[in-house]
Amino acid sequence: METKRIVILGAGESGVGAAMLAQKQGYDVFVSDFGGIADRYKTVLQELNVSFEEKQHTEALILNATEVIKSPGIPNTAPIVKALVKSNIPVVSEIEFAKRYTKAKTVCITGSNGKSTTSLLTYHILKNAGLNVGLAGNIGQSFAAQVATADFDWYVLEISSFMLDDMFEFKADIAVLLNITPDHLDRYDYKLENYAASKMRIVQNQTENDVFIYCADDEETQKALKFTKTLAKQYQFSIHKKIEAGAYLADENIQINTHPKDLFTMSISELALQGKHNIYNSMASGIVAKVLELRNNTIRESMGNFKNIEHRLEFVAKISDVTYINDSKATNVNSTWYALESVGTDVVLIMGGVDKGNDYAMLKDLVRSKVRAIVCLGKDNKRIHEAFEDDVEIIVNTFSANEAVQVAYHLAKKGNTVLLSPACASFDLFKNYEDRGNQFKAAVKEL
C-alpha cells in the first residue's frame, strides 16, 4: 500500500506540530514555508528527519499531496492554495488533523475579543480542579504536537476564525462563542456576515450531547444564530438580564445556574479579572466549569487567583504617578474599545500600525470622554488623524516604541494612564504584537 503524502504549508508552531504528528502516524511528510523558517523549528524538523523547504512553494513537491495541512495565517487567495483547490486536494487545519488522533474531549473557545484570556482562565480552573487537561490552538504549544507527545483527557482550544475556515469534520464537545465584532474583514470580502458565518462554524457537527455557550448581549451573535442550526444544549451569559440557563449579573454578583439545585454565586469584586468585558469572560469560563460539575469552591478560588496573559491590559509600571499599560494584543478596534472601557479617564493613547480596514467610529465617544492625546505608532497614521481630529486636541506621529513612550511621558500628567492599545496589526514596525509589547515595556522601564 502506498504511503499517504501529507504536505504542510507554514512551518510555525502549528505546522511543525502537525509534522510531528503526521510523521508519528507514518505519513510521508513534507513542509513548505513561503517565508524563512525559525532556527528552533528547523532544528525540530531536522531531528524528525522531515524534509522541508523555505522561502518558496515548489508546486511539484506540493501538488502530489494526499492532503495538505495549512497554517491559519495563509489566506485561501494564496496562489498555492488556489492550485490545491483546482487539483481537488483536501486542505485542512492542524486542529482538524490532530483531532483524528485523540479521544480527548475539547472545550473550544472563539470570539473576536477575549478568547486568549477566557481560554487561559478556563484551563486554569480545569487544571486546579484536577482534570488532566492541555491548552492549545491559537495559544501555547500546538495541538498536534501535544496529541503526538502527551495523553490528555481534555483540551482547552483557543480557536480563530481562520482555523475554523479549514475545519470540516471536527466537533467541539463544549463550544464557546464570546462575541462577534468586525475583525480580519480583509479575509472575508469586507463583509461582517461572512466573518460571523465563519465564527458560527464552532458549533458544526455538535450533537444533543454537546454544549454551546454564547453571549446573550452580543448583537452580531444573536443575528448569526438565526441562520445557524445546532442540536447542542445551549447556555447563555448576560450582564443585562436574568438568564434561565447560564450566567447573569445580579447585585454585582455573577450567578451561574446550569443546575437547578446548585447555584454558583461570586461577587465581581473578588474576580481576578476586572472590567466589564472580563465579567463576560469569567461567566463563560464559569459556565464551562459548572457544565463539567466542578466544585463551586474550586471555581471561586481559581477565578480569584488567576493571572492574566502578557500583552493584554498588562500593568507595566507607575512612574511619577502615571500608570503605563501594555495592551499590544489589541490588534482590532473592538479590543481597543474594551481597553478604553476598562481604564479610568485622562488617557494618553498609543495606537496605530497596519490598518485592517478599521472602522474607528465605535471608538469616538470613548476617545472624546477619556483620551487627552493620541500618540500614533505606525508608518501610515493618516486614517487615525482623520478619525479623531475633532475628538482630541493632540495627535502626534511616532515611528518607534521608544519614541512613542518618550512622547507619551511628556504629554501625561499626574494621575493619567498611558495605554498602548494599537487597534492595528504590528507588522509595519515590529515582528508581531509580542515584539511591540516587549519594546513598549523596555522603553517604559528606561524612563
UniProtKB/TrEMBL annotation:
Compartments, as annotated in UniProt: Cytoplasm
Q: Which UniProt keywords apply?
A: ATP-binding, Cell cycle, Cell division, Cell shape, Cell wall biogenesis/degradation, Cytoplasm, Ligase, Nucleotide-binding, Peptidoglycan synthesis
Where, in this chain's numbering, is ATP bound?
111-117
Named in its record, the pathway it takes part in is: Cell wall biogenesis; peptidoglycan biosynthesis
Keyword Transport belongs to the record: no
Q: Which reaction does it catalyse?
A: UDP-N-acetyl-alpha-D-muramoyl-L-alanine + D-glutamate + ATP = UDP-N-acetyl-alpha-D-muramoyl-L-alanyl-D-glutamate + ADP + phosphate + H(+)
Q: What is its EC number?
A: 6.3.2.9
Which molecular function terms from Gene Ontology are attached? ATP binding; UDP-N-acetylmuramoylalanine-D-glutamate ligase activity
Enzyme class per UniProt: ligase
Query: Which example biological process does GO assign this protein?
Result: regulation of cell shape
Q: Which residues form the Mur ligase central domain?
A: 109-288
Q: Which InterPro entries match?
A: Mur-like_cat_sf, Mur_ligase_C, Mur_ligase_C_dom_sf, Mur_ligase_cen, MurD
Record keywords: Repeat included?
no
- Ranges for domain Mur ligase C-terminal come to 311-424
Q: Which GO terms describe its cellular component?
A: cytoplasm
Which domain of life does the protein's organism represent? Answer: Bacteria
The record's listing under Pfam families reads: Mur_ligase_C, Mur_ligase_M, MurD_N
Q: Which purpose does this protein serve, as stated in its record?
A: Cell wall formation. Catalyzes the addition of glutamate to the nucleotide precursor UDP-N-acetylmuramoyl-L-alanine (UMA).
The similarity annotation says:
Belongs to the MurCDEF family.
* Protein name per Swiss-Prot or TrEMBL: UDP-N-acetylmuramoylalanine--D-glutamate ligase
Say which species the protein is native to: Pedobacter cryotolerans
